[in-house]
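Bench notes, afternoon.
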Amino acid sequence: MGASILPDLGAEILIPFCAVVGIAFSLLQWVYVSRIQLSPARDSNSYSAGKNGCNDYLIEEEEGVNDNNVVQKCAEIQNAISEGATSFLFTEYKYVGAFMVAFAILIFVFLGSVEGFSTSSHTCANDETKMCKPALATAVFSTVSFLLGAITSVVSGFLGMKIATYANARTTLEARKGVGKAFIVAFRSGAVMGFLLAANGLLVLYIVILVFKMYYGEDWGGLFESITGYGLGGSSMALFGRVGGGIYTKAADVGADLVGKVERNIPEDDPRNPAVIADNVGDNVGDIAGMGSDLFGSYAESSCAALVVASISSFGINHELTAMLYPLIVSSIGIIVCLITTLFATDFFEIKAVKEIEPALKRQLIISTVLMTVGVAIVTWISVPSSFTIFNFGTQKVVKNWQLFLCVCVGLWAGLIIGFVTEYYTSNAYSPVQDVADSCRTGAATNVIFGLALGYKSVIIPIFAIAISIYVSFSFAAMYGIAVAALGMLSTIATGLAIDAYGPISDNAGGIAEMAGMSHRIRERTDALDAAGNTTAAIGKGFAIGSAALVSLALFGAFVSRAGIATVDVLTPKVFIGLIVGAMLPYWFSAMTMKSVGSAALKMVEEVRRQFNTIPGLMEGTAKPDYATCVKISTDASIKEMIPPGALVMLTPLIVGIFFGVETLSGVLAGSLVSGVQIAISASNTGGAWDNAKKYIEAGASEHARSLGPKGSDPHKAAVIGDTVGDPLKDTSGPSLNILIKLMAVESLVFAPFFATHGGLLFNQTSLSTMPPLSLHPFPPKLTPTSSLFFNPQSPNLYTQSFNFYTPKRRRIRFRSLEIKSLDAAQVFDYETKLAAEFRSSQSLKIAIIGFGNFGQFLAKTLTRQGHTVLAHSRSDHSSAAAALGVSFFPDPHDLCEQHPHVILLSTSILSAAAVLSSLPLQRLRRSTLFVDVLSVKEFSKSLLLRSLPPYFDLLCTHPMFGPESAAASWNGLFFVYDKVRIGADADRAARCDKFLSIFEREGCSMVEMSCAEHDRHAAGSQFITHTVGRVLGMLRLEPTPINTRGYETLLDLVENTQGDSFDLYYGLFVYNKNALEMLERLDLAFEALKQQLFGRLHDVVRDQLFGNAGKKVGTVQEECVSQNGTALVRSPKAARLPKVRVADSSEDHSRLKIGIVGFGNFGQFLAKTIVRQGHRVLAYSRTDYCDVAQQLGVSYFLDADDFCEEHPEVILLCTSILSTEKVLMSLPLQRLKRSTLFVDVLSVKEFPRSLFLQNLPLCFDILCTHPMFGPESGKNGWNGLAFVYDRVRIGNDKSRVSRCDQFLDIFAQEECRMVEMSCEEHDKHAAGSQFITHTMGRVLEKLGLESTPVNTKGYKTLLNLVENTAGDSFDLYYGLFMYNVNAMEQLKRLDLAFESLKKQLFGRLHGVLRTQLFESADDSQGTREPQLLPTPLDGESSTTSFLEAFDIQNN
């Protein structure tokens, strides 16, 4: 058979090593999370850092609510949630502990009685020549393994809960800095739980095997039979955790929603709701502790099932330890794979926008599955022999190692398929949930009907996936194949748990933000995290249910083998009645759990109503609710109600096995498996769909969703009722059912020897056992089917005895080749070519382009290339261009219309569209002609076409959101928006419209059907803002600099994108978009608000300088010393000197620098990492205590400036903020430094620090002004190619000082920065100026509250990116760019003048048109009507009045 490549010692090292790595990685993630302090910053006004030593921008800084009370509230709420969860789990564990002890005694008594508590050895079942350990030993060790499994399960759930409650408030606080930072905290916290559980479960199981092996020796069959108790212990605790936690969380959730949302119409997680704390506690005890115990149980059971089957196969018989431990090796490599996968979410890729969250979580599943496939291939190759045998119901089946690899992979990939199918049916991004949401229009009843239908339908594909997995894995490796397929599905358990735990942590974070009264923008970020978590939680439930099905089947097979059952005949009465009863059990169990939730929720609703009715000021927010009473109700109810469902599951196998025997028990297990899996999938998906349908309406992210909202509307209330009904389905009954089917199977496996020996008390004494099997039809004696339990593809009969079906032997059919010969054939006629030509003719359109300018010719190229006939008409002569394109050009519109084109495509400018349309001889066209426009505003064109064209013409309004420049390479992925305004009912006319649209679909356009009104609200508005900003910047004549920042390059791209468009296009966007004037006014107000903010800050500084000195305390003792040139040097007082933190001195190394960093905040730490890595010695000084961070980085940290300077650093690197630089420099005791010290700054403006250094530093000090044009975010993946600007302001002539300066610059050169030597003045002219313009525009646009639209143009995306790039920087940075850049005021003035100039240009053009309409139309001697350039007034309004009012508004 061969031997494994990996030696036994290698396996014994690999498994614990991977487990220890997993534990270490989880602790590392916990360290990262713990760095976020749940306490206010101690020195928020210090120069060195913002909050907690981090210069990250906080939302509160802008909104002026940066109150330390917010942080304190978050800490208090977190403590309340943590205490509530801990209290509940301890109470639950008291009851569970009593059960654990009682059941352990039961295991010992039952298994010990198999051989009458005999201590003598017996002959082994698989080898009668050997003696095996007594049954009493199996009883003892099964009891011990049960207790260990139970304890490990309890610890796993408890640790998961503690981690989640530790991280929820920290996620809330990080959400102030951005959705990306909050995501990382939540995901890292989930990873702590995932890796701890996976690694602990693996390590404990491995240690148990090693310890038990010391007693059992060569008796591997007995050894691994006793190990099954480990899985039983894990699942029994998981049952109580799932049921108890589910009842707790849903009782609180239902009570909070019904009274809070439906009756009182207050937001979710509103602190006025008395049940809000209980609701958040429930998220942790149900979704975290329960899920952790559940998946641990699945992992333990699948491992035990595989080990039991392997122990009676060649692995166990031949004592091949490495192959025997194959299930544990697969789990070990899974930990390493999940570790790598986690880095993709936390380190390799950064979440920058809300829309990136859900794809990042899905990528985790895909990446882990792909990597795991490779990992399984490797470990299978090295740890399993090339050929071996597996026990297959009395026979040994020969299996190849590649077949075993496929068994694991089929489970692995089936899990991914089930997960994504679950997501499709539960995510509101797809049509099933949107249909459920739409059904809320007619009330809660239709919502319930649609939700139930969705749940039933969602079962189909997962069941097929499970069925295929079972068939493939059993065909290859019998029951062992099914066990390792289940293990494959669970091999990425660490990643799955991290994603599962992420959801409740994010949900809690949102609740804490709401209760702490934080900004609505923070709540929006946490809601976005929670929404992604809901979808991935549904995926996790799909994984859990799918794995439970495979695990329970593997345990079922192990039970049949251990109980000595030769065949399970479903037509035997005692098996069939077990089958029916087993199929009923999931319904009984679900009824008990749902009623328990209902009873507990009823008490909760009554309590919440009582508090709202009896506590004065509760709704007004002046009184505080009684949270503790609600927490107590949930705790008492869940503890009381979890006992009956738990007893049902635990007692059923015992009662059936003892009284009815193993055959009936096998029927019960099969029935519960078949029905339980399907009910679990249906219940979970139904509840998830109702939940996300409610969130779909609340979010209002689409026009359809907004039509159902807002919150409080009748459809929303119907959705809340559906969500409330679905809560116990998706969070209590559904998830608990997978534990039911697993737990009954593993319990039967553990007690199998007792049931086989002493079971069947009733059936052994009744005539039922002697009854013959039921027969559906007689079989001839010679046609006896095969006696196999499962489908056997290698059997001559395709069906098994279990079903008593018979398939006769198939006849062989001999196929003969067919020859066709032709005599005297007709002349060749290419009929295929004729058909192809007719088909092309039927698919082509005759399209007439009106307005054959640049855009018309651009479209014509594609139309002709696709085989359509193109005609063209234009007032200008474009005949030569038309001929080159293969287009028929007509100078006379009559001639063109007489060609009867199918489609008239209006490609005129927006200003001339009305005049051109009125000039067409419509009477010469066919009455069914389709008119299409391509204007960039749609309500105007729709109104124009409806007003000007007879009703028998079809109308299609479109907007290709690209042009000759943006689509020069391809149209793929570019938006094409259309609205079928009026299409005739005739099928031919509808087909023609679709045929025209298919032109753009074939080119890969992203087709978006959208009403004209919605288009103008999204696209036209965003285009107007884009062109306005682009033209304002164009007037500034921005030019590239040698050191462009990314933000400035964004502005240059915007100018380039808008410069090529004519002013007519921009003017049309202004005139024909009814929101344009409002947008222009908002932009103006935003700019004024920003200027007021700047000048207000400047006014405060000047006032402090004029009047603030008088209020300062006098009497501060300062010591002065005189430098060589007589400059007075000031140092801080010596009193109350603080202790310093030091690292051991190393030997003097002149090739390394001693660099002192002043200001050890975010940027200082960022630079220190690289400087230390290059081998330089780094000292640091800051007013805030960064001792811990410094020690981690290998930096000597000083809290006293005198101590710092006495160390004589060769370089002083100032990493302070621009506003505090002068203050910090003046506070340094310069007299304690060496006279040749090099001073370096890293500020983003350079003339200010240059002047500051020259004025305040003695001549003996060297000065180097630098600007690393990157930061912790942009430079986190390396500094390669990033600009580093420097100016050697004053460097001594001494060779050593010049060398020291070069050595410092070499730090950045070694990191491959782009080194740019440039004077400070030139730098400020280029970089500081461009940065100021960039930040100004970014902040103005941020105040507009720009949001992404479904049809973003490239230019608008540029604006959104600009806002995103600048929004994270603090106002201090922007103010510093204004205050310390000598050109800033001039640039601000130029920007103001450019904006005013653009407005004058717009309103001047408008005034000219209006004047023409008022005074010149009467003097038209020809009598022809002047083309109307302003919109036709509606409802009797005159255009004069409306536009004069517009001017009055503007002037006011």
